[in-house]
Protein backbone atom coordinates (compact mmCIF):
# COMPACT_ATOMS: atom_id res chain seq x y z
CA UNK A 1 0.00 0.00 0.00
CA UNK A 2 1.55 3.39 -0.97
CA UNK A 3 2.26 5.89 1.78
CA UNK A 4 0.23 9.05 2.12
CA UNK A 5 2.33 11.88 0.60
CA UNK A 6 0.67 14.38 2.94
CA UNK A 7 1.99 12.59 6.01
CA UNK A 8 5.63 13.10 7.02
CA UNK A 9 7.84 10.05 6.77
CA UNK A 10 9.74 8.43 9.63
CA UNK A 11 12.85 10.53 9.01
CA UNK A 12 10.87 13.79 9.05
CA UNK A 13 9.03 12.74 12.21
CA UNK A 14 12.34 11.92 13.94
CA UNK A 15 13.78 15.28 12.93
CA UNK A 16 10.68 17.07 14.21
CA UNK A 17 10.90 15.15 17.49
CA UNK A 18 14.59 16.01 17.93
CA UNK A 19 13.89 19.67 17.24
CA UNK A 20 10.96 19.67 19.68
CA UNK A 21 13.07 17.99 22.39
CA UNK A 22 15.87 20.54 22.07
CA UNK A 23 13.38 23.41 22.10
CA UNK A 24 11.50 22.07 25.14
CA UNK A 25 14.71 21.56 27.11
CA UNK A 26 15.89 25.06 26.23
CA UNK A 27 12.62 26.68 27.28
CA UNK A 28 12.63 24.75 30.57
CA UNK A 29 16.19 25.86 31.33
CA UNK A 30 15.43 29.45 30.34
CA UNK A 31 12.48 29.39 32.76
CA UNK A 32 14.54 27.87 35.58
CA UNK A 33 17.81 29.79 35.15
CA UNK A 34 17.03 32.74 32.91
CA UNK A 35 17.92 33.16 29.25
CA UNK A 36 21.31 34.80 29.77
CA UNK A 37 22.46 32.31 32.41
CA UNK A 38 21.64 29.26 30.31
CA UNK A 39 24.42 28.00 28.06
CA UNK A 40 24.19 26.04 24.85
CA UNK A 41 26.25 23.31 26.51
CA UNK A 42 23.59 22.95 29.22
CA UNK A 43 20.87 22.67 26.60
CA UNK A 44 22.83 20.05 24.67
CA UNK A 45 23.28 18.01 27.84
CA UNK A 46 19.62 18.33 28.87
CA UNK A 47 18.41 17.32 25.41
CA UNK A 48 20.96 14.46 25.18
CA UNK A 49 22.06 15.42 21.68
CA UNK A 50 25.46 16.02 20.13
CA UNK A 51 26.81 19.51 19.51
CA UNK A 52 26.58 18.99 15.74
CA UNK A 53 22.94 17.91 16.05
CA UNK A 54 22.12 21.00 18.11
CA UNK A 55 23.68 23.38 15.59
CA UNK A 56 21.98 21.62 12.68
CA UNK A 57 18.63 22.68 14.13
CA UNK A 58 19.56 25.92 15.89
CA UNK A 59 22.58 27.83 14.51
CA UNK A 60 22.48 30.31 17.41
CA UNK A 61 21.07 30.49 20.92
CA UNK A 62 18.65 33.20 19.78
CA UNK A 63 17.22 30.81 17.20
CA UNK A 64 15.91 28.62 20.02
CA UNK A 65 13.40 31.36 20.77
CA UNK A 66 13.05 33.30 17.53
CA UNK A 67 13.05 30.51 14.95
CA UNK A 68 9.63 29.06 14.27
CA UNK A 69 7.61 27.47 11.51
CA UNK A 70 4.69 29.90 11.50
CA UNK A 71 5.77 32.36 8.78
CA UNK A 72 6.19 29.74 6.02
CA UNK A 73 2.98 28.00 7.10
CA UNK A 74 1.01 31.27 6.98
CA UNK A 75 2.39 32.11 3.54
CA UNK A 76 1.61 28.60 2.23
CA UNK A 77 -1.93 28.80 3.67
CA UNK A 78 -2.40 32.25 2.11
CA UNK A 79 -1.30 30.98 -1.31
CA UNK A 80 -3.79 28.11 -0.97
CA UNK A 81 -6.77 30.49 -0.69
CA UNK A 82 -8.98 31.15 -3.74
CA UNK A 83 -7.58 33.97 -5.90
CA UNK A 84 -10.86 35.91 -5.90
CA UNK A 85 -10.91 36.44 -2.12
CA UNK A 86 -10.03 39.95 -0.87
CA UNK A 87 -6.58 40.01 0.82
CA UNK A 88 -7.82 40.34 4.40
CA UNK A 89 -10.42 37.58 3.97
CA UNK A 90 -7.75 35.32 2.51
CA UNK A 91 -5.51 36.15 5.46
CA UNK A 92 -8.32 35.38 7.91
CA UNK A 93 -8.65 31.91 6.42
CA UNK A 94 -4.87 31.39 6.31
CA UNK A 95 -4.49 32.40 9.97
CA UNK A 96 -7.38 30.12 10.95
CA UNK A 97 -5.74 27.23 9.11
CA UNK A 98 -2.43 27.76 10.92
CA UNK A 99 -3.52 28.79 14.41
CA UNK A 100 -6.95 27.22 14.66
CA UNK A 101 -5.82 23.72 15.55
CA UNK A 102 -2.68 24.30 17.62
CA UNK A 103 -2.19 21.72 20.35
CA UNK A 104 -2.09 22.80 23.98
CA UNK A 105 1.65 22.13 23.98
CA UNK A 106 2.17 24.34 20.91
CA UNK A 107 0.11 27.14 22.47
CA UNK A 108 2.13 26.93 25.69
CA UNK A 109 5.42 26.98 23.79
CA UNK A 110 4.28 30.00 21.77
CA UNK A 111 3.41 31.89 24.97
CA UNK A 112 6.74 31.00 26.59
CA UNK A 113 8.73 32.06 23.56
CA UNK A 114 6.75 35.30 23.28
CA UNK A 115 7.41 36.17 26.92
CA UNK A 116 11.14 35.62 26.41
CA UNK A 117 11.22 37.74 23.25
CA UNK A 118 9.52 40.64 24.98
CA UNK A 119 11.62 40.51 28.17
CA UNK A 120 15.15 39.77 26.86
CA UNK A 121 16.58 42.90 25.17
CA UNK A 122 18.82 40.96 22.74
CA UNK A 123 15.89 38.86 21.56
CA UNK A 124 13.61 41.88 21.25
CA UNK A 125 16.17 43.69 19.07
CA UNK A 126 16.60 40.68 16.78
CA UNK A 127 12.83 40.24 16.56
CA UNK A 128 12.48 43.75 15.11
CA UNK A 129 14.76 42.74 12.24
CA UNK A 130 12.76 39.56 11.76
CA UNK A 131 9.51 41.53 11.59
CA UNK A 132 10.86 43.42 8.58
CA UNK A 133 11.74 40.09 6.95
CA UNK A 134 8.25 38.79 7.72
CA UNK A 135 6.71 41.88 6.15
CA UNK A 136 8.78 41.39 3.00
CA UNK A 137 7.92 37.68 2.84
CA UNK A 138 4.20 38.34 3.34
CA UNK A 139 4.24 41.03 0.66
CA UNK A 140 5.08 38.42 -2.00
CA UNK A 141 1.85 36.35 -1.86
CA UNK A 142 -0.19 39.51 -1.26
CA UNK A 143 1.32 41.06 -4.40
CA UNK A 144 0.66 37.86 -6.36
CA UNK A 145 -3.02 38.01 -5.38
CA UNK A 146 -3.28 41.69 -6.38
CA UNK A 147 -1.27 41.38 -9.60
CA UNK A 148 1.29 43.88 -8.33
CA UNK A 149 4.99 43.89 -7.50
CA UNK A 150 5.99 42.92 -3.97
CA UNK A 151 7.84 46.24 -3.58
CA UNK A 152 4.69 48.21 -4.43
CA UNK A 153 4.14 50.70 -1.60
CA UNK A 154 0.45 49.78 -1.17
CA UNK A 155 1.37 46.09 -0.91
CA UNK A 156 4.07 46.86 1.64
CA UNK A 157 1.60 48.99 3.59
CA UNK A 158 -0.89 46.13 3.87
CA UNK A 159 1.85 43.65 4.78
CA UNK A 160 3.25 46.10 7.36
CA UNK A 161 -0.20 46.64 8.91
CA UNK A 162 -0.64 42.88 9.26
CA UNK A 163 2.78 42.42 10.85
CA UNK A 164 2.13 45.34 13.19
CA UNK A 165 -1.17 43.81 14.22
CA UNK A 166 0.55 40.47 14.86
CA UNK A 167 2.97 42.29 17.16
CA UNK A 168 -0.03 43.34 19.25
CA UNK A 169 -0.96 39.64 19.49
CA UNK A 170 2.50 38.88 20.87
CA UNK A 171 2.14 41.58 23.52
CA UNK A 172 -1.31 40.31 24.51
CA UNK A 173 -0.04 36.73 24.82
CA UNK A 174 2.73 37.95 27.11
CA UNK A 175 0.24 39.89 29.28
CA UNK A 176 -2.42 37.19 29.41
CA UNK A 177 -1.09 33.61 29.53
CA UNK A 178 -4.65 32.31 29.18
CA UNK A 179 -5.33 34.19 25.93
CA UNK A 180 -6.12 32.08 22.89
CA UNK A 181 -3.85 32.87 19.94
CA UNK A 182 -6.46 31.87 17.34
CA UNK A 183 -9.05 34.21 18.90
CA UNK A 184 -6.54 37.06 19.10
CA UNK A 185 -5.58 36.65 15.46
CA UNK A 186 -9.27 36.60 14.49
CA UNK A 187 -9.76 39.86 16.41
CA UNK A 188 -6.88 41.61 14.62
CA UNK A 189 -8.27 40.56 11.26
CA UNK A 190 -11.66 41.99 12.23
CA UNK A 191 -10.01 45.25 13.22
CA UNK A 192 -8.04 45.39 9.99
CA UNK A 193 -11.24 44.81 8.03
CA UNK A 194 -13.01 47.61 9.88
CA UNK A 195 -10.29 50.07 8.92
CA UNK A 196 -8.45 50.00 12.25
CA UNK A 197 -11.12 52.09 13.93
CA UNK A 198 -11.21 52.33 17.74
From TrEMBL:
Keyword DNA-binding among UniProt keywords: yes
Keywords, comma-separated and alphabetical: DNA-binding, Transcription, Transcription regulation
Occurrences of domain HTH tetR-type (ranges): 16-76
Keyword Transcription: yes
One MF annotation (Gene Ontology) recorded for this entry: transcription cis-regulatory region binding
Protein name per UniProt: Putative mycofactocin biosynthesis transcriptional regulator MftR
Feature: DNA-binding region: 39-58
Superkingdom of origin organism: Bacteria
